[in-house]
Amino acid sequence: MVKSLMVQLSNNSLSDFVRQVVSEYRNTCEAKNVNLLLDIEEVSAPYDRKLVHHAVAAMVENAIDAMPQGGELEATLVNAEFQWELEIADSGISDVQDEPTETEQQLPRIVGIDTNVHLGKLNQLSILMNATVQSWNCPLGGTAHVLVVPKTSSRENSSQRRAA
Predict the structure, then answer these.
(1) What pTM was computed for the model?
(2) Tens digits of per-residue pLDDT, 36-93?
(3) CA 94 to chain centre
(4) What is the C-alpha to C-alpha distance for residues 122 and 73, in angstroms, rounded to an integer?
(5) Across the chain, where does the E strand assignment appear?
(6) Between the CA of residue 135 and those of 132, 146, 164, what are the distances in Å?
(7) pLDDT at position 11, please?
(8) Fewer CB within 10 Å of terminal CB in the chain, N or C?
(9) Residue 116 has pLDDT above 70, yes or no
(10) In the chain, what percentage of residues exceed pLDDT 90?
């Protein structure tokens, strides 16, 4: 999926950028009877526009696909002290297994690779972003996927990736 990629950090508003990327799906959501909710905190942190765009797109497309009969998609951006967190939650079909089998408990699980192409792509992007992906079923149905990206090591990691 990702060939030799040069990370290029932007200092523009991450909040505005995430809002813009999610809003690109407004027409798709309306056509599929999906209510789009945004809860975006102001976040100022260096980020790579291409990586963040692809990650947001993968998460939103996954959520829309999980709601073939319509529903609710909520995008939340949280500014924490040492990281920023992007959560995309949907009210569709839950895709995180609640109780892993005994074999699955013994193996590390990368969410999405065995689920669909959107989450597989998200996991690949998270490696480039030095981020983690967390997923869980929502209490009222649907699934939440959270991309957690550290703030402090963004510059260090990007220079290490360029040198590699």
Answers:
(1) 0.76
(2) 999 999 998 888 889 899 999 999 999 999 999 999 999 999 999 999 999 999 998 7
(3) 16
(4) 17
(5) 9-10, 34-40, 47-48, 71-79, 83-90, 132-137, 143-150
(6) 10, 6, 30
(7) 82
(8) C
(9) no
(10) 48
Topology given in CATH for the domain delimited by 11-163: Heat Shock Protein 90 (3.30.565)
For tokens 């959107």, what's the residue?
118
Tell me the C-alpha distance between 116 and 139, whole Å.
22
Closest of 58, 40, 51, 56 to residue 9, by C-alpha? 51
Question: Do residues 2 and 12 make contact, with C-beta atoms less than 8 angstroms apart?
Answer: no
Tell me the residue type at 96.
V
What's the start-to-end Cα distance of the chain, in Å? 18
Name residue 61's amino acid: E
pLDDT digits (tens, 9 = 90+) for 1-49: 445 556 788 888 999 999 999 999 999 999 999 999 999 999 988 888 8
**Beta-carbon-side half-sphere exposure of residue 28 (alpha carbons within 13 Å):** 15
The structure tokens 């959501």 sit at 29
Question: Strand, helix or coil at 54?
Answer: helix
